[in-house]
Amino acid sequence: MIANFIQQNPTKLIFGKQQIKQLKNLVQPYKRILLVYGGGSIKQNGVYDDVMKQLKGKEVMEYAGIQPNPRVQSAKEAIQIIKENDIDFILAVGGGSVIDCVKLISAGVYYDGNPWDIVTKKVEPSNALPFGTVLTLSATGSEMNCGSVITNEKTQEKLAWGSSLVYPQFSILDPCYTYSVSKGQTINGIVDTISHLIEQYINQEHNPLNDVRIEGIIKTVMQYSHKVLKNPKNYEARSVLMLASTIALNHSLSWGTKNDWGGHDIEHAISAIHDIAHGVGLSIVMPNFLKLHAKKNTKRIKQLMVHIFELNDTSFNDYDLAMMGCDKLQAYFKEIGAITTLKEVDITNISKIAKLAYKHTVGSVYPLSYEEIYEVLKMAK
Amino acid sequence: MIANFIQQNPTKLIFGKQQIKQLKNLVQPYKRILLVYGGGSIKQNGVYDDVMKQLKGKEVMEYAGIQPNPRVQSAKEAIQIIKENDIDFILAVGGGSVIDCVKLISAGVYYDGNPWDIVTKKVEPSNALPFGTVLTLSATGSEMNCGSVITNEKTQEKLAWGSSLVYPQFSILDPCYTYSVSKGQTINGIVDTISHLIEQYINQEHNPLNDVRIEGIIKTVMQYSHKVLKNPKNYEARSVLMLASTIALNHSLSWGTKNDWGGHDIEHAISAIHDIAHGVGLSIVMPNFLKLHAKKNTKRIKQLMVHIFELNDTSFNDYDLAMMGCDKLQAYFKEIGAITTLKEVDITNISKIAKLAYKHTVGSVYPLSYEEIYEVLKMAK
Asked: Considering only residues 29 to 68 of chain A, which have any Cβ-Cβ distance to chain B shorter than 8 Å?
């Protein structure tokens, strides 16, 4: 049965070539803007200049250096700047890490304690400073949702939180801004998008309208991923990856379902300890996580695999088809150049990871035991 | 290539059993509410009582009797009531006709002239009174978009208009509220939903992410339509039809495409003259409209048909596959009990209809000549 749900997504999506031109009007109501970005690639690829041109006439301050797994410490520093300078709008320019961090900054401005309290859900945000985004990486979907993942280096934790207060006001998606994304990061983004789609397929309260959309989008992403990797400046293919990553996590594919997210829970434990990219962790974890679920949730995994890989051979049983699909997913990841084993990133301490993961629930719908988490990691060796 | 687009859909969707309980909170900020509904079926099926219970403590006025093809005259009358009684919120309870009419009422309150000027685009709405909806019919998708279709009896015109000011603030979708919908209206709703999906497939600037989602949703609607017609109180099947009709026209499937809508243009001419239900007009027009496009747009129609009907026989050429699919669509409509010929509704004056249709553009992307419109109608005889 499809479960009751409430959904409202107020983000204005602005897609296409040179849509940065809309920015001037979008920030018109604001005076003092904090520009937040990452490692500075936007200064090399021209995005920084494009943005600054649109912000002419505004007081602009900058906070740069947001890291791939964004830290609570960065949020603290940016909040300080906002409070001291009476900033009234934040502009996130970057990928999911920058946007996720800006979400915490936005809510943290109205909380006097440690913003980590918001991430751990010790406190509920009461208000948030408005912000918009200029997306430069197709991956997390953070540009059109109200979720965020933050790392605490001290406690070695990487946790997800969310609040309806932190939807971006707008997100500008120009596929050309992703032309210069490196091959590795493009691959990570593809893996991330596909993983988000798959995680929403493992659920309670199935909604067949979600299923068919998820299956179709996964197939399309797989198809266009090859085109992008062949030609990074293929506009159509970059467009498909950009929009797919946005749809994959804008809540439109989880209407009336409760989702598991166990694969992400395991990945977060890996990258909390090892600081590998989220996409790398996912391409290692997901096929093996699904193999575990092929035992627990055979029909469901089989249905997904049969549809995305068009497995027609009826001489196999459900479990075999499900496992065959998991192998095909892993093979696809390898084919596009993704990392699929812990060995490739020199990670051997799987019991340490399993222990950290097990500290929090792994899988909201089908919680895994310590032994099951360990089994997934062992298969991923 | 996927075209530039901007999208923002602020409607809060509230789906599920007994979600009417949310209504009290949703209307909390308002004092004087105009309740707008249709022929009074809501008084028989309990929806009226459920709504009134939630509105206790408010000043409530009513405007009833909105007809299936809503008239500009109804909007005029309701606007008068709103102005005289200082109404600050409108609640539409019904299907697409009621909601479409409320959209014109909502915008018309702030325009002193004839609201028909808004429909003909002579004037742009400057403001709109806030409104919400309680949906009782799965069909038009009006509950989560900013479009509206209004009929002018005097001029025998039926025209579509829209404005970003007239998104519903919220829409409450309880599938149980559609249990008592008649078989005929259920069939019309199914046809309407499928037609909306197909119309968005005939476009410029193809977006493969739209294509796969549209194909998947059409297949799912076809599958669940049989379940609903067998058992009108099948909660899951009613849920699928309700959510599918909403997704079918909430703009999420037209990201970056320019759509044709030629089938609707022809249907509007039929029902402007003959006052048949929109869904009836569509089941007559769509298969024949697609047959015309099988000539003009062979590859596109073939792609759609191959995917929704799983046509695998490679011995046929593209045109044959496209035509085969059109026949299958017509056969499906017949199978669920939909009307598929003009004869069945005693319509013979096809040149009068063709002339009226040709007065406005038929097909925004591939405009049809008078002869082509006539040909579609002739095939529909």
From this structure: none
Instruction: Evaluate whether B374 touches B286 at the Cβ level (below 8 Å).
Output: no
Residue pLDDT, tens place only, A247-256: 999 999 999 9
B207 touches chain A (CB under 8 A): yes
Q: What's the gap between Cα A193 and its chain centre?
A: 7
> Tokens at residue A263, please?
């694969």
Mean pLDDT by runs of 10 across the 381 residues of chain B is 96 98 98 96 96 98 95 98 98 97 98 97 97 97 97 89 98 98 97 98 95 98 98 98 98 96 95 90 98 96 97 93 98 98 97 95 96 98 95
Show the tokens assigned to B192: 């309407």
DSSP string, B368-379: PPHHHHHHHHHH
CB distance B262 to B368 below 8 Å: yes
Task: Determine contact: B226 vs chain A, CB below 8 A.
Answer: no
Closest CA to A279 of A256, A301, A254, A248: A248
Parse chain B into domains and list their residue ranges.
12-178, 183-379
Could you list the beta-strand ranges (E) of chain B.
5-15, 32-36, 59-63, 89-94, 131-135, 147-152, 157-162, 170-173, 203-204, 258-259
Minimal Cα–Cα distance from A213 to chain B, Å? Answer: 5
Judged on CB neighbours under 10 Å (0-12, 13-18, 19+), A119 is buried
**C-beta atoms surrounding A283 within 10 Å:** 30
Percent of the residues in chain A that have a pLDDT greater than 70, as a whole number: 100
So what's the architecture of A12-178 in CATH? 3-Layer(aba) Sandwich (3.40)
Torsion from C-alpha of A4, B43, B134, B338, nearest 10 degrees:
90
Interface of B with A in 15-34 (CB under 8 A): 15-17, 19, 22
φ and ψ at residue B257, rounded to 5 degrees: -130, 155
Domain A183-379: CATH architecture, name and number where available: Up-down Bundle (1.20)
